[in-house]
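Dear Dr. K.,

Following up on our conversation at the group meeting, I've run the structure prediction for 23S rRNA (Cytosine1962-C5)-methyltransferase from Prosthecobacter dejongeii. I'm pasting the input sequence below exactly as I used it, so you can double-check it against your construct before we proceed with anything downstream. Let me know if the numbering doesn't match what you have in your notebook.
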Amino acid sequence: MNASFSRRPLIKPATWIAPAERGVFETAGTTAHRLASGPDGWVERLGDDVMISHKNDVALAELISGLEKWAQESGWFPSRVFTRFLPLKNDERISPILRTGDMTLPLTTVVTENGVRYGLDFAAGYSHGLFLDQRINRTQLRLLKPKRMLNTFAYTCSFTVVAGLVGAETLSVDLSKKSLDRGRQNLALNGISEAKHRFIADDAQELMPRLERKGERFDAIILDPPTFSRNDKGRLWQVEQHFEDLVNAALELAMPKCAILLSTNCTKLDTVVLERRSRQCAKIKRRAVDYLRLAPQVDFPSGHGSSTLWMMVR
Ligand SMILES: C[S@@+](CC[C@H](N)C(=O)[O-])C[C@H]1O[C@@H](n2cnc3c(N)ncnc32)[C@H](O)[C@@H]1O
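The predicted C-alpha cells came back this morning:
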C-alpha cells in the first residue's frame, strides 16, 4: 500500500447546498444561510462575506477547497472569507480571523433574513451575532403574532426583532448588557421604536420567579439557553441539570395559549428528551400542552443545528 495514502485521514465530506438554492434564499430576502455542513465544520454565507468554522486543519482545508468549487459552480464569490476555530472548551474560544479580502473594510456588516435586518460583528468575539439555525423558529414566531413575549437568553435579540415587527410588547433578558445593546441596534435597524421593548441584563433563572411574583404573564416565551454558563456571582447554569427549573419557571409565566420555544445545543437533549422532560413539568404544574415540531431547514442537514421544539400551552 502507498505509505502517504495510508496516512491520509478519512473524513466525511461536507454537504453543500445546491448552487441554485442561493437564488431561492435571495428571492426570500435572505442573505444569511449555511452553504455547507460537515462533521468537523461548516460554512456560512453572511451577506457579501463567508465564515468557515472548523474543528481542525483537515476540515478547514476541505471546506476552503469546497468553497472554491461551489463558488465556481454558483457564480457567487464572497468579498471576504473569515475562518473560526471551534475549540472543545468554551474558555479557548477566539474571534474569527480574516483569511482573504480587504483588511480595511469594517468588521461589521448587515445581513437580511426574510427581509429582516440584523447587524453582525466579526470582531465581537467568538459569535458574529446571528444563529442561522433559528431562522425557522423566528419565522414561526412571526406567524404566531404574540402580544407579550419574554425572550430569555436573548443574546442579540433576534426573536425580539421579529416579535416587534408583528406588534408585540417584549422583555429581553441576558447576562450580557453588550449583547442587549446590540439587540437595541437590531430593533433600530428595522425601524422599530424601543417604546414597547424592555431589556434587562440579569440572570434569567433568578429573574423569572421575580417576574412571576410581579404578575407578569406572556403569550410567547423563548427558552434557548447555552449548555453551560456562570453568572457574575458564580452561579452555575447547566442545561442538562437546570432544564426542568427553566420550564417550570416559564409555565408559571405562561398565559393560556402561550407558545414556549424549547431549544438547546446540548447533544444529550434531543427533541424526544426535550418533550419527555417538559411534559413531566407540565403534568406537575397541571398545564395541558401540545407539541409542535417544525420541518428541518434546507441548509441544515439532519443532525446539524440545535434541537428545537415548541411547547404549546392550551
Ligand atoms: C445560545 S445564546 C442565545 C441565542 C439567542 N436565543 C438567539 O437566537 O440569538 C446564549 C445567551 O445566553 C446568555 N446567558 C448565559 N447564561 C445566562 C443566564 N444565566 N441568564 C441570562 N442569560 C444568560 C449569554 O450571554 C448568551 O447571550
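Two things stood out to me. The chain is about 30% helix and 30% strand. The two ends are 65 Å apart (CA to CA).

Best regards,
J.T.
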